[in-house]
Every structure is written in structure tokens, then in C-alpha cells.
């Protein structure tokens, strides 16, 4: 996995949204580096990471993250995921629970796709492989405030979406369509959790975040105002403040580093 890192402190792995890359975490690598060892990998096929030839699966992506922790010499880390990254974080919690010292679930949900949603993902995957693009998804990714007032954010997201390789995007759509319900995994999670939602998120509304918070044994919910599906990009100062507070209050750190 191609990985960007910054800072020292609590190991913090941040997993990116679909169809972006670790480049989306620019503000987090800068804003959280004072108190965390920020680790931002590119998931399969995105950015600088290879797609490989495995069947589409969030489990495969989660296993990649576990291998990355091994490579970095980290027994445990706080793992945060936004949107698709949240699905991968929950798969990691299911398959490798001992690797987590905390979890951050932003703009994501624990429920599986409905049959209709899974069929739509397959349609999108096939369209991408036939030469289509994903730029028409940009308005859904961003909240109304960003679309109306944050022109630089809109331009940046368009650039990130436009650079997504079609094979990786199609593979990821099929992986997300096949993912299981994760509520049982959340109920069994014995580490602190931070759940983040955007009040303008149309893809994973606040109700999805509330459901995850209720399922988790030790969780706090934060709803960020004037924010859509990409909270870390749309309102990075607020996102970073909430994450930094969570790390400082909930996650013990010995000071050791690999």
C-alpha cells in the first residue's frame, strides 16, 4: 500500500472515501501531526497502491491494513475511516479486533446494501469499465453549503474524483456491494469510538450515525454543521478538533514508536 505519514504520537490510520485517495487527508496530516502519528494509505487501486487480482471485498482491504500495521511495526492503532474507509475500518474490527486501540467512523454506516443499492453499484461498476466517469457524483458527496460557498472545496473534490482509476473504482463498488451488516461487530467492539456525521450528508444521514453510536459500547457522536458527506475536506478544522480531542481524552499512548 502506498502510504503518506506525518507527525509523532498516537498511531492514527485514516482510510479514505470512495472514489478518492489518501490525498483527501492533506488537512489531517497537517492538523493532527502535533499529537498523532498520522498514517494515510491508498486503498487498493487508488493513488499509488496496486489493485491486485483478488475478488472485490472490503475484507481484502482490511487485511491490507493489518499487513500495513505489521510493516510499520505497530501492534495496535486508532483506525478511522470516512465513507468507504469506514466500511474497511469495520471489516478490520471484525477480522482483526486486536489491532484496534480506538475507532473513528465518519460519514459511514454499519448496515449492508439493500438489493437495489447493490444492483445500482453493479450498474455503476460496469459503466465505469465501459468508459464512464464519476464526476456526476460530486454534488452528492458535498453538502449544500460547500456547493454554494466553498468553491475551492468543490474544485478539489472534482480533481480527486476525476483522478480515480476506473478499474479500482469498479472493484471498490463491487466490494462495497458485497459487504455484510456490521452492527454485531460494533456491539462487540471494546475500544473507544468517535462517530462523526455531517448535517447535510445525503449519502449517510445523521440517522445512520446515531444507529452506530447506539450499537457501540463506548462511543460519542459529533454532528458537524453545514457539512455533507466529506466532513474531513469540507470542514477540516472542526473535524480535526474533534479527532484531536478524542485522541487526547480516550487513547493512552506510551510514547514508543516503531
UniProtKB/TrEMBL annotation:
Entry keyword Hydrolase: yes
Gene3D superfamilies in the record: alpha/beta hydrolase
GO molecular function: hydrolase activity
A GO cellular-component term linked to this record: membrane
Transmembrane segments: none
Keywords: Hydrolase
Domain AB hydrolase-1: 11-234
Superkingdom of this protein's organism: Bacteria
SUPFAM superfamilies reported for this sequence: alpha/beta-Hydrolases
Entries under InterPro entries matching the protein: AB_hydrolase_1 (IPR000073), AB_hydrolase_fold (IPR029058), AB_hydrolase_sf (IPR050266)
PANTHER family, per database record: HYDROLASE, PUTATIVE (AFU_ORTHOLOGUE AFUA_2G14860)-RELATED (PTHR43798:SF33), MONOACYLGLYCEROL LIPASE (PTHR43798)
The name this protein goes by in its record: Alpha/beta hydrolase
Amino acid at each position: 500500500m502506498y502510504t503518506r505519514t506525518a507527525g509523532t504520537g498516537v498511531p492514527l490510520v485514516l482510510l479514505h472515501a470512495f472514489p478518492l485517495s489518501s490525498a483527501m487527508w492533506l488537512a489531517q496530516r497537517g492538523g493532527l501531526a502535533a499529537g498523532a502519528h498520522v498514517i494515510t494509505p491508498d486503498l487498493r487501486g487508488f493513488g499509488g497502491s496496486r489493485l491486485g487480482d483478488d475478488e472485490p471485498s472490503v475484507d481484502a482491504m482490511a487485511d491490507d491494513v493489518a499487513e500495513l500495521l505489521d510493516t510499520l511495526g505497530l501492534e495496535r492503532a486508532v483506525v478511522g475511516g470516512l465513507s468507504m474507509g469506514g466500511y474497511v475500518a469495520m471489516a478490520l474490527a471484525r477480522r482483526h479486533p486486536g489491532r484496534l486501540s480506538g475507532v473513528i467512523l465518519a460519514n459511514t454506516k454499519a448496515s449492508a446494501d439493500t438489493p437495489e443499492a447493490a444492483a445500482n453499484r453493479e450498474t455503476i461498476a460496469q459503466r465505469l469499465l465501459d468508459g464512464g466517469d464519476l464526476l456526476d457524483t460530486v454534488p452528492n458527496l458535498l453538502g449544500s453549503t460547500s456547493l454554494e460557498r466553498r468553491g475551492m472545496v468543490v474544485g478539489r473534490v472534482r480533481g480527486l474524483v476525476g483522478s480515480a482509476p476506473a478499474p479500482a473504482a469498479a472493484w471498490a463498488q463491487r466490494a462495497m456491494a458485497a459487504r455484510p451488516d456490521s452492527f454485531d461487530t460494533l456491539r462487540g467492539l471494546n475500544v473507544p469510538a468517535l462517530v462523526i456525521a455531517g448535517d447535510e450528508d445525503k449519502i449517510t444521514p445523521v440517522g445512520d450515525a446515531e444507529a452506530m453510536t447506539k450499537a457501540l459500547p463506548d462511543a460519542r457522536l459529533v454532528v458537524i454543521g453545514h457539512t455533507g458527506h466529506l466532513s474531513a475536506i469540507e470542514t477540516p478544522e472542526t473535524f480535526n478538533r474533534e479527532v484531536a480531542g478524542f485522541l487526547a481524552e480516550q487513547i493512552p499512548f506510551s510514547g514508543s514508536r516503531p
